[in-house]
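Q: Got a minute? One more chain.
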Amino acid sequence: MSANTPSGTVIPEGYTLHTENNSHILISSKDEAFLNPVQEFNRDLSVACIRVWSEMINREKEAKWNQGQERRAKRAITDATEGKEVKKVKVDDACGSSLSVAQTEGHDMQVSGTLQASEGFTRNKEMHDISKYRPYKFILLEALSATGLRSIRYAKEIPLVRFVLANDLSESATAAMRRNVDLNGLGPSLETGEGKVRVNEGDACALMYNHRTEKTRVDVVDLDPYGTAAPFLDAAVQAVNDGGLLCVTCTDLAVLATTNYFEKCFSNYGGIPVKAEYCHEAALRLVLNTISTSAGRYGRYVEPLLALSVDFYVRLFVRVHSGPAEVKKAASNTSVYYICSGCQSFFEQKFGRTIERVNENTGAKNYQFKTQVGPPVPSECPDCGFPLHVSGPMWAGPLHNTKFVSKVLEHVEGNLDKYGTSARMKGMLTVAREELPTPFYFTPAKVAGFFHCTTPSLEEVASALLNAGSDVSRSHACPGSLKTTASRTDIYDVFRCWVKKHPVKMDKISNTSPAARLLAKEPRAEADFTKHPKSVTQSSKVKLVRYQQNPLPNWGPGSKASGIKRKRNGEDNE
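A: Always. Here it is, folded:
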């Protein structure tokens, strides 16, 4: 039986209509392609971040275009004053390339000959009136599109999209994509034969490697695989334009956020995960390091704009730049960490250090790169005496760009009705904007467990650290967590002072336990638990949805789509 939706769309038998914002797709009962409705937050956040990035890069290109026009205008006036022949005036097109006298699409202008000063100025003014800047339209490549819902939303919701290249290896998935693209009116047009969403069936890496030359690169690459994105990162960092955006999802947190499969994590990401309460932040840093090292092989470096640990996956938005000098700084942003198996203290060992020297006369910056001394600790934890385990290497720099996050938050607050998960987006982005760039977070409840004491409130712990001169923020990755510039030993001193006011019963504590060794030490300074005005952050003043509530029974990553098996080349049809 077929049914009609209120919009008049006919739903064929065996299909159900799934709607997200103003995009609609048909889902087959034959499990042709994978779709997880729970990841609507991921898709909403991606639309917002890519839209803000597109506006940002458009402003950059417009500023560069205006500078070029001003230089050419001054040159034309000077040449006309001196009686020189005015050469062909070059005008930048919307994509930033220089063409002779604005030979952009549909335009052909040329100014030549000897002009007087007044004539040159008049003609140049006319040139400016005619050759106005056109907004930069970008190309987006989604390497693993499945149903095509994400690509369809990008094409419909981001104004500056030129077109989206939606790819999948599965024959059944690409068939579903074409059906859904046509359903949303984004298929090939009669005039050009090309649509705003262009479907491609093929290997994701092969497609991205075909776009790795400078002239064929795309502006945005989105990787949202089922599981790890590691096999696609090498191709992705080469396919992105200079200043372009790389969006990465990894759903294999069973590998990234535990040590149960550390050997698998090392083979995928080149690092060892963390077994501690801050394992989800470590997962983000492992993926960032993989992207950074992949880009560094090709003289490129990364700028994390936003990196979030969400539910059962991590989602990262990274800007990719070219610059051999900046690539050299990667070692100074890469660390291994010694993690205590008893109290979860961590000790950072960076791979290198960068020394910056500024020339007093010119203001030019010179960098020297030095190796780092180590190790920072002995073989046992200086806080509790338990053995240390090595994790990493992983990214040690900031996870977020505060200015970018503020822009995304501003966009979301102005478009709350356009995102189904806007409440949670606002909450997560508010916390991310405040988050300190230092690793890692902790929860007072977990630290209190190490001391076997009652748990102080979040506000009391934050106030004690702030009164001691340290900075404090929340972390997006875990409810009730704090990040601070204080050392782990400083945090333990706060709890030792807390224990003095709220004594611990020592009769049930083993002499060899971490609690006994932590309590045996005296605090180096007295903690002040008086409420500090900064202990209540902006994100805690307002009731914000920061963490996922169970939207469906048995929700989670979902089962991989079976689809239709691809036949090998030369296989006979039976």
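A: Residues 40-81 form the longest helix (42 residues).
Q: Perfect, thanks.
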